[in-house]
Design goal:
The complex is a heterodimer of chains A (220) and B (215).
Chain A lengths: L1 E10 L2 E11 L4 E5 L6 H9 L6 E6 L3 E4 L11 H12 L4 H14 L15 H14 L4 E5 L7 H18 L2 E5 L3 H7 L2 E6 L2 E6 L7 H6 L3
Parallel strand pairs in A: 3-7, 3-8, 5-6, 6-7
Antiparallel strand pairs in A: 1-2, 1-4, 8-9
Helix pairs in contact in A: 2-3, 2-4, 3-4
Chain B lengths: L1 H11 L2 H25 L6 H13 L2 H16 L5 H26 L3 H9 L4 H31 L11 H12 L3 H34 L1
Classes of the chains: A alpha/beta (220), B mainly alpha (215).
């Protein structure tokens, strides 16, 4: 589904990513782990095309959706407008269909009552759901999530695990999650790659280990 | 008492020119200012735009007004009337300040807003029109109200090229009656009333337009 071949990226001479190779299967949930500053977010941004690559290629069969760490909802638009604006621009004749799709997504994510609210009136968890819904509006084949649990409490983090798993199942979407939260990643991911100083340290199937968190911590 | 009323009426007849100058130059200022600030983000024109803004902010407005009224017509070969020269000079000068206000507004937005628009494949024109500028306008609105008030007061400079605005009419009365106190007070009352009205209008628009999303 997603082939990352020999990616290198540096900022002002400082190497941030060094020859990263990754193969991500269709409909998998793939975790990118590593300490802060190891290059997880940069790798996601390279996959999305927000950064130009110094070297290497990203091959993706299908559309990519992106969920930002700080959500980046448009504050002057209501929740429904945030969801439907871009699809409406692409296909003006299907506005009613886009609205129905947005309302259905909000129902799936249990925030259907917030359609007319502005982002400022939403809690962190609700903003995150709206950001997820916006990412899903374009029916992506791959959804990139940058630190989706940062700043959330334990209970909301568990909700996110359930939510992403159900999205993965319901929409058969490949999900790539960058997070420093190893507990969260081992609960949700089919595979986890750990980055250290911009290089790939290890790429494992967490189900093969009795204590994957402890195993991954050795490479931190 | 009768003299006060006559003076009030005479000086008040200059309000029309003051408002025409304000509205005309504000339209040019906003259009050019926004254009300048957007062009600054498109690599090639950055130096050129920065140069224009630097010159406009670095020279006195009275010099720019004189240049537009006395020099430009001799270069282009046609005469500009007082109102047109005023609108052009005040408008272009105001554009430089508005461009700076808009730049500050754009730079205050998180980079993620541009990136979110990019990931959603929103074309550049729509990104600026529907995503970036509405947020910028909300952020810079109080500063823009200040700019409108400053512009209103700057229009008094039109008197130096013979424009019969509030200030010029006050000067005429002062010269005729050998009394500066009353006409200048009347001019001050007119300007202050206009400023209060602009402030009131600004607060109403801010409350009406930007309140919902912040509540």
């Amino acid at each position: 589904m997603l082939e990352i071949h020999n990616i290198c990226k540096s900022f002002r001479g400082v190497k941030v990513l060094e020859t990263i190779h990754l193969h991500i299967e269709k409909s998998a949930i793939f975790g990118l782990a590593g300490p802060s500053g190891c290059g997880k977010s940069t790798l996601l941004r390279c996959i999305q095309g927000l950064e130009t690559l110094d070297q290497g290629t990203v091959n993706c069969r299908g559309r990519i959706g992106f969920m930002f760490q700080d959500f980046q909802l448009f504050p002057h638009m209501t929740v429904l407008q945030n969801l439907t604006y871009a699809p409406d621009l692409k296909d003006k004749d299907k506005k009613a269909e886009h609205r129905r799709q947005a309302e259905s997504l909000l129902r799936d994510l249990s925030i259907e009552f917030k359609g007319d609210a502005y982002p400022k009136a939403l809690s962190g968890g609700q903003k995150q759901r709206v950001a997820l819904a916006r990412g899903l509006m374009a029916n992506p084949d791959v959804l990139l999530c940058d630190e989706p649990t940062s700043g959330l409490d334990v209970s909301t983090t568990m909700d996110v695990v359930a939510l992403l798993k159900s999205i993965n199942k319901q929409f058969a979407v490949t999900i790539v999650i960058a997070s420093h939260d190893l507990d969260f990643l081992t609960k949700i991911s089919d595979r986890i790659a750990l980055l250290k100083n911009g290089a790939l340290a290890i790429n494992i199937d967490p189900k093969q280990y009795a204590d994957p968190v402890d195993f991954l911590k050795r490479y931190y | 008492m009768h003299r006060i009323i006559v003076n009030f009426k005479y000086i008040g007849s200059g309000v029309a020119l003051t408002l025409a100058l304000l509205l005309g130059s504000l339209s040019i200022g906003v259009a050019l200012g926004v254009l300048f600030s957007i062009l600054r983000y498109s690599g090639i024109s950055r130096l050129f735009i920065n140069g224009i803004i630097s010159v406009l902010r670095g020279t006195p407005l009275i010099l720019q007004l004189s240049f537009v009224y006395f020099i430009v017509p001799s270069i282009l070969g046609f005469k500009l009337n007082v109102l047109s020269a005023g609108i052009i000079a005040f408008g272009i000068n105001s554009a430089a300040y508005i461009a700076e206000i808009v730049r500050a507004g754009i730079e205050s937005l998180p980079q993620g807003q541009f990136e979110a628009a990019k990931t959603l494949e929103i074309p550049t024109f729509y990104m600026w029109r529907d995503i970036i500028l509405p947020q910028v306008i909300a952020n810079i609105f109080p500063a823009m109200v200040n700019e409108v008030i400053a512009l209103l007061k700057e229009t008094a400079l039109i008197a130096i090229i013979g424009g019969m605005d509030i200030m010029r009419k006050a000067q005429i009365i002062a010269a005729e009656q050998y009394d500066y106190f009353m006409p200048l007070c009347i001019a001050g009352i007119y300007y202050y009333t206009l400023v209060l009205f602009i402030e009131f209008l600004g607060r109403r628009v801010e409350k009406w337009k930007f309140h919902a999303r912040n509540s």
